[in-house]
Amino acid sequence: MYGGDSEVEDLNSKLKFGKAYAIDEEHDYRFRVFKAYLRRAKRQQKLDPGAVHCLTLFSDLTEFKFRTHFVGVNRLRPSADSQKVPILPIGDLASYFDWRYHGAVTLVKEQDSRGLRWSLSE
């Protein structure tokens, strides 16, 4: 997959994932990031031939941008004046509780133009 022409792979990736960039500078920057991803994937594939490295809709993102936009919560250190939450007794709780029947879970929503979907609760 990663031995071919990076421009062809970039075009295939953009078509597959519906990528479009507003200005040439953005395209050029994303293409450089994409080529770096291909080099990294090729290196990783050599290190672990049993693994499968493929193009994803994230292949034109830097690791920093991916982490800041798509990887969980940034865990902050508690401030000096923060207090611990007390552990409450759980002896009288139901053994099963389905939040769907209590209005706490919504349908999956599309979050942006890339078609990413997240399951949210309100």
Automatic annotation (TrEMBL):
Pfam families in the record: Inhibitor_I29 (PF08246)
Organism of this sequence: Cucurbita moschata (Winter crookneck squash)
All residue ranges annotated as the Cathepsin propeptide inhibitor domain in the record: 14-63
Recorded superkingdom: Eukaryota
Record's protein name: Cysteine protease RD19A-like
Coiled-coil zones: none
